[in-house]
Amino acid sequence: MISSKIYAFAVNPWAVIGSLALGGAFGLLAPAEALKLGMVGDVYVNLLKMTTLPFMVSAVIFSLQRLFRDGGTSRLLLRVVTVFLCASATVALVGVLVLLVMRPGANLSSATMHTFGLMVGNDSSSSETAMNLYGTDVAVKGLSLYDVVASLVPSNIFAALASGDALKTLVFALLFGLAVGRVPERISVGLSQALETIYQACQKLMHWLSYPLPLILFCMSAAQLGKSGVGPLHAMLQFVIAFFIVSVVLLVLAAVVIWKRSSHSLGTTLEALRPPFALALATRNSAACMPSMIESLVDQLGFARSRVELMVPLTVSLLRVGPMVYYVCATLFIAQLYGRSLGIVEVCTVVLASVLAGFASAGMTGLVTVSLIGMTCVYLSLPFEAAFILFLAVDPLCDMLRTLILVIGNTAAVSVICPRPLKI
Length: 424
Fold this sequence. Notes:
Elements: H1 2-10, H2 13-29, H3 31-35, H4 38-70, H5 73-102, H6 110-121, H7 129-134, H8 145-152, H9 157-163, H10 166-181, H11 185-208, H12 213-228, H13 231-235, H14 237-261, H15 266-283, H16 290-300, H17 305-318, H18 321-337, H19 344-360, H20 366-371, H21 373-377, H22 384-393, H23 395-417
């Protein structure tokens, strides 16, 4: 009883927001002391990451094995492809509409443009902000089909596990799970029991790690603002506000989809989404939220466990809706920043390139994800390399929003892919 109350408090949205606000205030008032707290957040995220791959491998293999026993594989595959395409198009179009209406990169004040010049060029005496922003462009290497395919297939599964490569590990788990599904049940029953034990243990461990969440959020927020301050956030404020609005629209849309697909009330649905929401804010790691997503969909909303345990790792690893919409917003912001007007064809190019870059970001985290904005900018001949530091400065905040969109958005995608739960 006591542990359940602690858990409910730890994942309460108000506790999450309050911890972030208090930590940010401490980071601004005492930056030197706040920097020392960064180690607490690093250790916590590493503890979560260490359970991710064992959890994902066991869940995928075990679920595929049960899926083959239950049948309906071909229908499920068609539904997955349809949902992936519709979800990708939806998030990209929402990003385009908000950025074209708000135009956060246009009509900026001279003080803001001067701050941009200082951030990019580090030249306080220069008045040519545009020249500083362009800087020296570095050629962006295009991503070929061979590069994409080669990045999917592991040459050594143990090396992929050791390096934490989630995408290659997922490919192995899918192939191995397909093979295990064809093995007679009397032979594979021992492996099934072992995988289920690993799965349950990882899920229990993730639940325990949720208890100190408010304290962890305080430490992480304090360390981040103690390091960067509010200067970069102020300079990129209009972009951050626009991306925040895009995120809110998509989160509301995802919550409505989950509510309509479930057999529960809106209040029950929002209550079920609290744990993955809090973990996404705390960890900024979508893979670490998978156990919480599964628990919410299965235990609280009643979706079929065999489908959910397969679809959650698959969507989190491949349906990268958070990075997709971020690439759309960032590319349009850069175009507005440099005064580049875009027609219908160019906007469609941004959407398509952002969706492809989102799929290419599978298995990537942090600043590597941000660097793929260059893939979308290259099609419009926009100088992303010189402006990279602008997005680098506010990435911790944007990363939170990207992870939230990915986690809650993929929860909605899974609810559409899986059959509706039976009403009680």
